[in-house]
């Protein structure tokens, strides 16, 4: 490249107004290239420039911290808005408009071949999802009409007896299929 395409102050390739070289940085560049000691005038310019640079770094640091706080606040706000959006969408979901009878029928299709009165059993699990599902599970006696009792496998027999009692009471007038 010819010398006309370089910055006259620092010889960088930028000839537009985007060159950020100052007289001090230009003097520093010359001194670094030549390895000579700075003159008194150059020393004063460079020393003053170091102070200005330190101030600019401090201002940039402060602005960076401020912008990070703004971004953190925006992230929090965005999470809240997304949560609100998800909540509102869930209120409008089709599953909320399903008739209770259909939900009950779906629950019946969730039953495994073996039924155990454990807190992990399907009727218990379905009843723990939300208030509506709990009401549907409790009002669907057929969901509780199959029972596989295995007393020897239980450590806490009192809790197991309570679960079996609850299972029987929830089965209502349904015909109970019992396996021992």
Automatic annotation (TrEMBL):
Q: Which domain of life is it from?
A: Eukaryota
**What is this protein identified as?**
F-box domain-containing protein
Which source organism does the UniProt entry give? Athelia psychrophila
